[in-house]
Amino acid sequence: MVLATANPDKAREIAALLDGFEVVPRPADVPDVDETGATLEENARLKAAALVEATGCAAVADDTGLEVLALDGAPGVYSARFAGEHASYADNVTKLLSVMEGVADRRARFRTVALARFPDGREVVAEGAVDGVITSAARGDGGFGYDPVFQPDEGDGRTYAELTLEEKNALSHRGRAFRALAARLRHT
């Protein structure tokens, strides 16, 4: 299956989670797909369909959103571009910490929708979510995106960025979504 993501951080996590499946990187000549969907599932579908069209092979895509309770679920589907269209990870984290300054209720949820699409149009979809809190400052050097400011409830008080990749994959939203997707793919 061809990975729809060109993000090397995300590709490394997904490849590790889809153990037992042949996963190949997105060809360099396939352009980015505009994420114009109103939901995570719609964006995952857009990306997977574009890769199937471009390669003729089965494709796997995902979309992830950080949903902050105090921000009425934002940034949500706009998580990757929260601080602007070409924002860096650091830009998004800085903006989130800025808008959360002085906010007492810091509850949040990370949610991933993983979707595999086949050339015949069949799809397999799975979702994973993890509840946690937004920390008041970035902590840790691992991971990517909002990992330095997301502290999962199920952990030991560390942020995703303070966990090893294996520890993060064991409890993360992406880990849950792709393990569920892999299980469903084995039974289709």
Helices and strands, with pairings:
Blueprint: E1 2-3, H1 8-17, H2 40-55, E2 59-68, E3 75-76, H3 89-100, E4 107-117, E5 123-134, E6 150-152, H4 165-171, H5 173-186
Parallel strand pairs: 1-2
Antiparallel strand pairs: 2-3, 2-4, 4-5, 5-6
Structural class computed from helices and strand pairing: alpha+beta
- CA radius of gyration: 16 Å
CATH domain topology: Maf protein
Low-confidence stretches: none
**Top CATH class:** Alpha Beta
Q: Spell the H/E element sequence.
A: EHHEEHEEEHH
What oligomerization state is this entry in?
A: single chain
Strand content: 15-25%
How would a crystallographer describe the biggest sheet?
6 strands, mixed
The averaged pLDDT comes out at 94
Assign an overall shape.
globular
CATH architecture title:
Alpha-Beta Complex
Figure out the total of helices.
5
Count of DSSP strands: 6
User: How many structural domains can be distinguished in the coordinates?
Assistant: 1
Report the end-to-end length measured between terminal Cα atoms: 15 Å
Q: How helix-rich are the residues, as a percent range?
A: 25-40%
Explain this structure to me?
The protein is built from five helices and six strands, in the order βααββαβββαα. The chain is an alpha+beta fold and 188 residues long. It has a single domain, classed as Maf protein (Alpha-Beta Complex). Strands 1, 2, 3, 4, 5 and 6 form a six-stranded mixed sheet that branches.
